[in-house]
Structure formats: C-alpha cells, structure tokens
Design a protein that fits this description.
650 residues, alpha+beta, 8-stranded antiparallel β-sheet, 6-stranded mixed β-sheet, 13 helices, 29 strands
Length: 650
C-alpha cells in the first residue's frame, strides 16, 4: 500500500506497512496475552470517555482515558502535564515518546500512523514543554537525512519484529537513534540559515559601473542644449523659432518661400515663419501650436534642440510632456498692450503657469524674450514695466536674478535675434546681448552617465530609415549604442537597439542629455507605449501606483481635499489619480512639519500627501532620478500643484 501524500516527511527507513494494524505472524508470536511485550490490540474504535477510571488519566483535549503509565494521550498525542517519571524518584520531567511527536498526524489520521517510531525512545524537554516540542516538530529532517543506525527494517510483506511501535530495539540502538536525531535537527537548522544568506546574496544587486564607451568623449563636438520655448498663447513662440531657424540656415529660402505662399493663400501671411514649426493641417488652420515641435540649430557653443511648446491652456499636458526635457528655457512675452496683462493674470494666464511649470521641471536658467516690441514702438518704458512686474513673479517662483536674462526683440522685424538691433529706437537705449548671444551665455547642463540607462519614451516613430518600430525621447542618464540590450517598461520586455538617430542623422552612441530616435527589434509594437521607459535590463525602474509626494500648491480656486480627483503627470505619462491622504503641512522655509493631518490644502501651501493612481506608471524617487521623480497635479484644466516623489509606497 503506497504512502499517503499527507505523510510527505519521508521516514522511509522506519518501514511502510500494508495495513495500519498488526499482521498474522505477529499475532501468532505474541498470542492474546496483553502482558507479553509487543502485544497489539485489535483495530476496534475506541470510545471517548468523559470520566477517568482507576489507574487511568483523562486527556484534557479528547477526554480519552489513558493508562497511568502513558506520558502522552494514546489518541491525540497531547502530553500529560505533569508527568511522573517511572524511574523511582519523585523528580518531574516533561518527556514524550517519539511515537507521539507528530501530534497533527495522530489527530488527523488516528492512533495508527503510517510512520513508526520506537516506543521506548524518549526525548527530554525543558520546562517550556509543549512550545519546545512544537519547535522540534517543525525541524523534522528530510527523508534523505534521517536514517536509523544499526536498525534493520523489514521489507513490505515480511514479518516485523517491531510489533506495533517497534519495542524490540535495544538500549544501545535507542541511544544511537536519539543522538542521530539531535544531530539532524542541528544540521537542518544551520542549513536553513545558510540558504537564507545565499538567497539574499543572490538578490542583492551590485553597484552600477558605467563602461568605458559610455563616458563622454572630448572630441570637440558641441554640447547639446535642450531649449524650451514657452509662453502665453499668441505671444509669437513658433514665429520666433521659425525665424531663428531661417536666419541660421536650418530652413532654406526655397522652403521659406513655400511657407509664405501657402500662408498667404489661407489669409495668414504673418504665420509663414510659424508654419516652419507647425506642420499639421489642424495647427495651421487654427493658427495655434498643439504639440511640441522639435528643431535643431547650432550656435558658437551649443547644439541647440528647440522644443516649441503650445501656449493654449487646452494643450498644457502636451507642453508638460515635451518641455520636461528642457535644460533651459526662453519665456516669450507679448509686449503689446493688454496681451502681457492677460498672460500674467491669475485666472488662466499661461505666462504664469508656464513659468511655474518650467521651474518645477528643474529649469533655473531662463531667457525672458520680450517680443513684439515693434508694436509698442520699442518703448523703453513698456519694457521696464514688464520687467518689474514679471520679475517679481519669477522671483516668487524660485528663479534667481543672476540666472535671468531680459532681452527686448521683434521676431517679425528681425531685431535683436542673431545680431545686435539695427533699429535706432531700440539700439538707442538697449546695449545688452542679443538672443543668440544670450543662448551661448547659458551654463552647460550636467550630464549623468554614472547611473544606469533611463530614457522616458516621448512618442512612437515609424520611419523607413529606422525600421518597423522606433521610440523617441531624451536620455536622462546612462548611454546607448547599437546592439545594446534594453528593457522596455512597463511591460518588461527586453529588446535590442538596432539603430540610433540624433538630429535625423545616424549615430553609433547616444549619451545622457541626447534627444534621439531609437529603433528596436525583438519586441512587439503593442508592448511599447508613450510614457514607458527604456532602462538597463539589470537596473529597472519602479512600476507603482501609490506614492508619497512633497508638493507646492499653486493658485487654486477650490482647496485640495482627501479624495480629490486629479490628473497625475510624470515625465511623459499621465494617469487619473486620487488624493489618498494629506500627511502634513510643511514650513516652506525650513521644510519641517508645521501641522499634521490637515483637512485641506489651499494656495501657496507646501505639504506631504499620498496619491493613488488608477494605473501604475514608471517612476523613481526624486533622489534617484530627478526627471522620473518630478510630478505635476492638474484638475479642471489647471495645474494645481507641482512636486517630487519622496517615497514609492509598495
């Protein structure tokens, strides 16, 4: 009869029997005399008794009447407490037979277990009794370790000399078995500890070390600068970008003539330079930028990546997705009467919101380009008025005067862009740098190649030159080269880099700070999404939906409450979220907790909060990767708070 599955503790050497009672040979040997050693009772069910008879003791669990000389219940195996030793003295000891070790086995399957132990072998316990017994039971050895020394085990079907509980073992064998059992328990305990240590070592990740090819090369190439063009709607951002590209030779005269002709046909002749950036039919028809346009030009010091951002309030999420890659920014201001005031207005002014957003992007160097100065006749008074009002607001956002440059210009009239102003009305009172000179005066950005690869996916690209699947974005840290293995999150598939393009030109290596298009192979297009992240296969980013944030509340109409529904923006990902908990208010000067568990948050308050997202996103704590740790909270078409991820809640 095979061993039951419930007995998978493996005491093979103690015998497997065809039945749970005695055999005929044993019955003939011992007869019906219960005084003979090894006498086996018939397999008749025992009736539980509620009262103890003389010479018996009642089990406190099953109430069975056991013989006085038994130290444990013959039915459930529970120890008799206290147990009087039979060695003739009055010393009390807590001892039990190995036959009664498996209490759970006896309770579940009855008295006659398939695992047989020598009846006479006892194990001495301390006063803790049952608790220590349970520990010993949990440490029972595996079947390939516990062997009965010098004990012959009868084969199945042969007469057994052990009787029911194997009482024919002599004292030497009992002592040997006892020692062996104790040694096995000690080795089993030490073995489990060693396994835990080795498992922890296997799970530990060694520190990331960049390879030699990842380090930046001093080959005389221009440093890349990601420059965001931001500002209120209709302030002339796209026109300024197109004019710069035309003056620097990035747009040929033939292409420019084409744009002028098409713009005049639609009655929008002044939009010719803007059409160099706004290429979609909808953008040209509506006359506004809807997505972030990307272009390139070279200055004396930098290879500049222009990120032309939409200014309309309906497309602020697109602005966040694109301009979050910026190293510096040009804040374009419309100098015409009423336009500047509309942009700086607290109710829907995009000059205010864009300034707050780029500061939360980590941008601290800003060129304030006061555009359309030709409309106001290049009046110095108008420029000074804008500078004083806007400067006060920018300082309140955290910008320093030493990192702000103020430049009056006119994109349509080509005044003060790539050369000094030629109009006497402007040159008579302004002697500062022109726009391109101010770009070269910016401090070079710091690139981090000492950390693992992190590239948030901005968009999909389908190009004949790149192949079937390509993704675009900015390398926030690390480096890439052709043939590199990358993990594409959040799905976790591993792909191979096929080709890399920078500035629409193939390259072999891309490093931190580069805006590139990466062609991937070995991955399904359905497993790639905007808002995902390319990362090192051995150092993936976290994928979570619950975070602790340190936020600064902007100008809000309604206070932020627990349970408030918000839009959660991080790098190129956007998800619906809910405020789970407002942990505390923070003092903006010291950063210390000023009040715990406030009921709501109002304008200009700094706080620690917890948010829950409807779906998980790829993030990292701000201390690990700044680009993947900056967040923006929006509601009802407005940005209500900006902040950083301080803790990822698993």
């Amino acid at each position: 009869m095979p061993r039951k599955a419930g007995y998978d503790l493996g005491y093979d050497d103690y015998g497997d029997y065809d039945d749970y009672g005695y055999d005929e040979d044993a019955d003939e040997a011992y007869g019906d005399n219960p005084d003979v050693d090894g006498y086996v009772e018939e397999e008749t069910p025992k009736v539980f008794q509620t009262a103890s008879k003389p010479g018996t003791w009642s089990c406190p669990i099953c109430t069975f009447a056991n013989d006085e000389d038994l130290s444990a219940c013959d039915i459930c195996g529970v120890l008799r407490d206290p147990v009087v030793s039979n060695n003739g003295n009055n010393k009390k000891s807590a001892s039990f037979k190995i036959d009664s070790v498996l209490q759970e086995d006896l309770v579940k399957f009855g008295k006659h277990s398939a695992m047989k132990f020598p009846q006479g072998n006892t194990m001495e316990l301390s006063s803790s009794g049952i608790s220590e017994k349970k520990e010993k039971v949990n440490q029972l050895p595996s079947k390939n370790k516990l062997k009965a020394p010098s004990a012959s085990v009868p084969e199945v079907g042969q007469p057994s000399s052990y009787g029911r509980n194997g009482s024919s073992l002599d004292d030497d064998n009992l002592q040997t078995l006892n020692n062996s059992f104790n040694k096995v328990k000690m080795s089993a305990g030490s073995g489990s500890s060693q396994n835990r240590v080795s498992t922890q070592k296997a799970k530990s990740v060694s520190p990331y070390k960049p390879e030699k090819w990842m380090l930046p090369e001093q080959d005389g190439k221009l440093t890349q600068l990601n420059l965001a063009i931001v500002g209120h709607v209709d302030s002339g951002k796209s026109t300024l970008s197109g004019r710069l590209l035309n003056l620097l030779g990035r747009i040929s005269q033939k292409e420019m003539h084409k744009y002028e002709k098409e713009a005049k046909q639609q009655g929008k002749g002044s939009f010719a330079f803007a059409w160099a950036m706004d290429e979609s039919a909808e953008e040209r028809e509506r006359g506004i930028t809807m997505t972030v346009g990307v272009a390139y030009f070279d200055s004396k010091k930098y290879h500049v990546v222009v990120l032309d951002s939409p200014g309309h309030k309906d497309f602020v999420p697109n602005m966040i997705s694109g301009a979050t890659q910026a190293d510096a920014a040009i804040l374009v201001i419309d100098a015409s009467m009423g336009a500047f005031e509309a942009g700086i207005d607290a109710n829907g002014g995009q000059t205010r919101e864009h300034a707050q957003l780029i500061r939360s992007f980590g941008v601290d160097q800003v060129i304030v380009a006061v555009n359309k100065m030709d409309v106001v006749g290049y009046a110095k008074e108008r420029f000074d008025s804008i500078k004083s009002q806007l400067g006060l607001f920018l300082r309140s956002c955290g910008f320093k005067d030493s990192f702000l440059s103020w430049i009056p210009l006119s994109a349509m009239e080509n005044q003060n862009l790539v050369t000094a102003a030629s109009d006497a009305r402007l040159s008579s009172w302004y002697e500062g740098p022109y726009l391109l000179d101010a770009v070269d005066s910016l401090q070079p950005p710091v690139r981090d190649v000492s950390k693992p690869l992190r590239m948030p996916i901005c968009d999909f690209i389908k190009s004949q030159s790149l192949g079937q699947l390509a993704v675009s974005g900015k390398l926030e840290s690390g480096a890439l080269r052709n043939g590199s293995k990358v993990m594409v999150l959040p799905y976790g598939d591993v792909a191979t880099v096929r080709t890399i393009e920078r500035d629409s030109k193939p390259c072999s290596v891309a490093r931190s700070g580069d805006n590139v298009a990466v062609s991937l192979q070995g991955i399904d297009a359905n497993r790639v999404m905007a808002g995902g992240v390319l990362c090192h296969p051995d150092f993936p980013v976290a994928i979570a939906s619950c975070f602790e944030l340190k936020v600064l509340v902007l100008d809000v109409v309604m206070p932020i409450l627990i349970g408030s529904q918000i839009e959660f923006h991080v790098h190129h990902a956007k998800e619906a979220a809910r405020v789970k908990k407002i942990v505390s208010l923070l003092d903006q000067k010291t950063g210390k907790v000023s009040k715990k568990a406030p009921r709501c948050l109002t304008s200009k308050q700094s706080a620690l909060i917890e948010v829950n997202l409807d779906a998980a996103v790829c993030v990292e704590e701000f201390s690990e990767c700044r680009a993947l740790g900056r967040v923006f909270l929006r509601s009802s078409g407005r940005t209500i708070a900006v902040g950083i991820i301080t803790r990822i809640i698993e």
